[in-house]
Design brief:
The protein has 268 residues and is α/β, with parallel strands linked by helices. Helices cover 40% and strands 24% of the residues.
Length: 268
């Protein structure tokens, strides 16, 4: 398995978007094509009033088109600087989440932002896409491909996430497979992570394993472990369910999206 095409969700203010630089670095390292994608619905933020002249909508469209062109130009410049095959996709008829969900069929990995730096809630992508999602927080400096952490749980979601991320994990010098388990479950956890590490090695990943007793919140413990190991990527299965069309995520998943300063790759 390999990635042949990545997709990065571009913000309209592309000059302020470090996510593009990080995405280009990943595409360069993995020798893939890169799609830059953005969308904005023309009617969003436009208060239609039949009394207002039609030029108001025209001006509104022209302003949005100008911002999209800036984003496209920034994408092209950055992709060329990395000698990448860049593909641009945009829409003025869809919201960004809707458009990315539709276009993601042609990409192996989706790269998006989190928090205030993103117009898309990454939870909507993770829970719906059927593709792994790399979430880049505003604090992230990029992937150095030295150390990554797999936050393992004996679940379908974890198995899916590890399988989906194999091409990226192969690029890392060291991958630590870690399971945090209660004291009475540590022996079982030790076997689990050792098995996963052995499987990863068969797929060309330099993997080690460790089992840890819980100390406080799981997400905090993962963040501390990432700091100790110098990891710039945490990989995990995404857990959650729907409630009246709203995604309700598990606490660890939500913390990975909002509170941890390194990149997180999540899959479901």
């Amino acid at each position: 398995m390999s990635y042949v095409r990545l997709m990065v969700v571009q913000e309209l203010d592309a000059a302020l978007d470090d996510r593009l630089r990080i995405a280009c670095g990943i595409a360069h390292r993995l020798d893939t094509q890169l799609i830059g994608i953005t969308a904005v619905n023309l009617l969003d933020g436009f208060g239609y009033d039949p009394i207002i002249a039609s030029e108001s909508m025209t001006d509104h469209r022209e302003r949005l088109e100008a911002r999209v062109r800036v984003a496209e130009e920034a994408f092209g410049v950055e992709a060329r600087s990395w000698q990448l095959t860049g593909i641009w996709r945009m829409s003025l008829a869809h919201g960004p989440t809707e458009f990315v969900l539709g276009e993601a069929r042609s990409a192996d990995l989706i790269i998006t932002g989190a928090g205030r730096s993103s117009r898309i809630d990454p939870a909507d992508l993770i829970m719906t896409l059927g593709r792994p999602v790399l979430v880049v927080p505003s604090e992230a400096e990029g992937l150095r491909f030295k150390t990554a952490i797999v936050a393992w749980k004996e679940t379908r979601e974890s198995r899916r996430a590890v399988a989906d991320s194999l091409p990226l994990l192969r690029a890392y010098q060291t991958v630590h497979v870690i399971e945090i388990a209660a004291k009475e479950e540590l022996e079982k956890a030790r076997r689990n992570v050792a098995d996963v590490a052995d499987w990863l090695k068969l797929h060309g990943v330099s993997a080690t394993s460790a089992d840890l007793e819980p100390v406080g919140a799981t997400s905090v413990q993962l963040a501390e472990r990432a700091f100790i190991e110098g990891a710039d990527l945490i990989l995990a299965g995404a857990y959650g369910h729907t409630r009246l069309r709203e995604w309700v995520l598990g606490g660890v998943t939500r913390d990975l999206l909002t509170r941890i300063p390194c990149c997180s790759l999540l899959s479901r």
